[in-house]
Amino acid sequence: MCQLLGMNCNVPTDICFSFTGFQARGGTTDTHRDGWGIAFFEGKGARLFLDHNPSCESPLAALVRHYPIRSLNVIAHIRKATQGRISLENTHPFSRELWGRYWIFAHNGNLTNYEPTLDGSFLPVGQTDSELAFCRLLQDLRQRFPAGMPPEEALHAAIDEFAAQTRRFGSFNFLLSNGDSLFAHRTTELHYIIRQAPFPVAHLMDEDMTVDFSEVTTPNDRVAVIVTKPLTDNETWHPLPVGRVTRFHNGAPVAWQPVKSPPSAEAR
Amino acid sequence: MCQLLGMNCNVPTDICFSFTGFQARGGTTDTHRDGWGIAFFEGKGARLFLDHNPSCESPLAALVRHYPIRSLNVIAHIRKATQGRISLENTHPFSRELWGRYWIFAHNGNLTNYEPTLDGSFLPVGQTDSELAFCRLLQDLRQRFPAGMPPEEALHAAIDEFAAQTRRFGSFNFLLSNGDSLFAHRTTELHYIIRQAPFPVAHLMDEDMTVDFSEVTTPNDRVAVIVTKPLTDNETWHPLPVGRVTRFHNGAPVAWQPVKSPPSAEAR
């Protein structure tokens, strides 16, 4: 299994503090030594740092920890391989372009006997169940909305439906972003916190490091952090609801009720 | 205009020396201050480092210069913006997946009145003529070879034909790789060198830096370096032929004569 870390904000924010605790789990305080990666959206562009070495030993991780990249949406992943060998092409997050936007995806879980039909529009480069699911998701989205990005509600419904179909094959915690919203899906373990004024002094579990967010933020800042296991030992983390996709936008979950959506391509 | 740097090798090789001279042109010895990027293939995986800050000031460029990433195929680019604002989404190289392989593309030049028809299978995220041409190239390739990657000769012919169609719109020096071969196309300026035993002592033009390649190689190593302007002042660089695509494989250009290829999708 792996661990996921995501951030969604209303103003571009750096993830140095949370990433410091998270990357320690890539071989120091935990056993996720089989590679790591992090993606930052900056406008419509995305920066993706991937390394198949343990994050605790990676000079690239040290750079990410110390070089503040401000972003509205970040997805990071540390890997403990289940399917697919330890190699760069099997390192999360994965990236593809759909509708002229980059999409970033990372998965924690294990899908078994998962053999979706692919039409060639998105094909996995590596051997993971995760990249396979990501390709199938994008194929479904393009098929359903051939004219381009639909309104956020319709997009949310389609991703929720895909998640429901796919979690039948196993554990399927994932983070997904198009740079605008961050979609989070939990089947086993995924927590979140909203940090906003009055900002806390937070202390990492995995390193003896404290940050007073009130010193590095403005009163209107709002940041959602989503992570497999809570990162701090003096804040209240909330478990994400199971069995539905949560969309984070501007640093908070968006209220949404699934409505009956049109049948999927496969069910038609 | 911009500058391009590519490397194609028969054994995984680091590009620290060449990149040191190249990145100095991103604001120190030359004026290409509008962002830079570099992509390394490692197996089927690719690492892409992008920065819209000048490479001479970038902590990321410093990391790439000092952290030897060994790769068979590398493409780097420093930008002086012609079309598209200075932003991450307009920073080369660009990356897409086709046939379950990553493709990396960087362009030096300027295409005017270039408005190819896109069917939506690959769409630009930014506003550059370069990313537009890359999307159209991949669309053409997928249309022509829907069953997957064709033999290298057929692939070479199709890319050569695309280059011929596209250079009618302006200067179109580009580097393209799928991790196996590196394709280079010159309309105005592009040079290459093959380094192999007996290896030279090379001295950079842009920094006072010398490397004795015989100390860091084995006798069977062969490395092709392709660059807009020669990087060293004591080696003989060759201009690439104009008006045809050269394919580099295992550190050398592959002999190839264009044969009459089937008509393109557009001409049918």
Automatic annotation (TrEMBL), chains A, B:
Q: What class of enzyme is it?
A: transferase
Q: Which PANTHER family match?
A: GLUTAMINE AMIDOTRANSFERASE, GLUTAMINE AMIDOTRANSFERASE YAFJ-RELATED
Residue ranges constituting the Glutamine amidotransferase type-2 domain according to the UniProt record: 2-268
InterPro entries recorded? EgtC-like (IPR026869), GATase_2_dom (IPR017932), Ntn_hydrolases_N (IPR029055)
Q: Does the keyword Transferase apply?
A: yes
Q: What is this protein called?
A: Class II glutamine amidotransferase
Q: Name one GO molecular function term.
A: glycosyltransferase activity
The protein's UniProt keywords, in alphabetical order, are: Glutamine amidotransferase, Glycosyltransferase, Transferase
Q: What is its EC number?
A: 2.4.2.-
Q: Does the keyword Amino-acid biosynthesis apply?
A: no
Pfam families, alphabetically? GATase_4
